[in-house]
Design a protein that fits this description.
Layout: H1 7-14, H2 27-37, E1 48-50, E2 53-54, H3 61-68, E3 78-82, H4 88-95, E4 99-103, H5 117-124, E5 129-131, H6 140-143, E6 146-152, H7 161-170, E7 172-183, E8 188-192, E9 195-199, E10 207-209, E11 223-225, H8 227-236, E12 239-248, E13 251-258
Bound molecules: S-adenosylmethionine (SAM).
S-adenosylmethionine binds near residues 84, 107 and 134.
Length: about 260
């Protein structure tokens, strides 16, 4: 992957007004930006929003970006970011040339995380679209078709994961790509020095169900697949070329292609 543009370049590209002599902005800029950032009760993403201010998210977004292996050039592509949260990946795809629609049903507010998309978009001067709605309501007749769909850390939050994967396939053009990252389970798991080591006893497709707050104390976590369960469900919902690109801790990463 070629090196990413510097945040300063990104902001110029997004149209943020800056003094070209001072790419980090003035102290007054920084104070104003910090005040806007503070209006969001809890950030998930670390986003460089200018004047040296980075939103205080816990997610190591630059490391995740490396693991997700997004296409370097998205010029002329339409990208859908599902469960976009604060929008780090949406803004990154826009920076790589894409027209972006981000959706999020904002159910994370029930689990105590805010949603800073609108604030970050404003500060960055981004043109990414944002709609507060459920993945289940995606419809090719009104949403059109996308070349790339990002489905990052959302699957285990869904009540109807199979329906959601079908809806994603319905708005992805044949040959279009899915980038998916999710929490997943193995039959046996041990955490050792911060690393999750696990294995499956057999290769049967499985999905665990968490009726209340069993998974991480979060009432919006419902289902988690094992590898076989996830791959089988992707195959059954219109996805092919299912390529596991990595694992990290209790997360698994895939690229897949919309069947013709
Ligand atoms: C764990 S966060 C992941 C955010 C971001 N994709 C990332 O990986 O950093 C899950 C996000 O998905 C959203 N979400 C959960 N269920 C959804 C649904 N049915 N439709 C759309 N968004 C949903 C939540 O509101 C939350 O912002």
């Amino acid at each position: 992957m070629p090196p990413l543009a510097s945040p300063a370049n990104s902001q110029q590209r997004w149209g943020r007004k800056q003094d070209p002599m001072d790419i980090h902005g003035t102290a007054a800029d920084a104070a104003e930006i910090r005040a806007r950032v503070a209006t969001v009760p809890g950030w998930r993403h670390r986003i460089d929003v200018g004047a040296g201010v980075v939103t205080p998210g816990n997610e190591d977004t630059s490391e995740e970006l490396r693991r997700l292996r997004l296409p370097a050039n998205l010029q002329g592509k339409r990208v859908l970011d599902v469960g976009a949260s604060d929008g780090f990946y949406s803004f990154e795809c826009e920076r790589r040339g894409a027209e972006v629609l981000a959706i999020d049903d904002e159910s994370s507010l029930l689990a105590g995380t805010g949603n800073g998309f609108r604030v970050a978009r404003d500060l960055l001067g981004s043109h990414a679209g944002y709609e507060a709605r459920d993945v289940e309501l995606l419809d090719p007749a009104t949403d059109g078709m996308f070349d790339l769909v990002l489905f990052i850390n959302v699957l285990y939050h869904l009540r109807n994961p199979m329906l959601a994967l079908e809806r994603l396939a319905s708005v992805t053009r044949p040959g279009g790509k899915l980038v998916l990252k999710t929490y997943y389970r193995t039959d046996v798991r041990v955490w050792l020095k911060g690393r999750c080591i696990g294995f499956d006893i057999d290769r049967r497709p499985k999905w665990w169900y968490f009726p209340t707050t069993e998974l991480g104390g979060d009432p919006t976590n419902w289902f988690a697949p094992n590898r076989a369960g996830l791959e089988a469900m992707l195959g059954a919902t219109g996805w092919t070329g299912i390529d596991r690109i990595g694992r990290y801790g209790d997360r698994i990463y895939y690229h897949a292609t919309r069947s013709a």
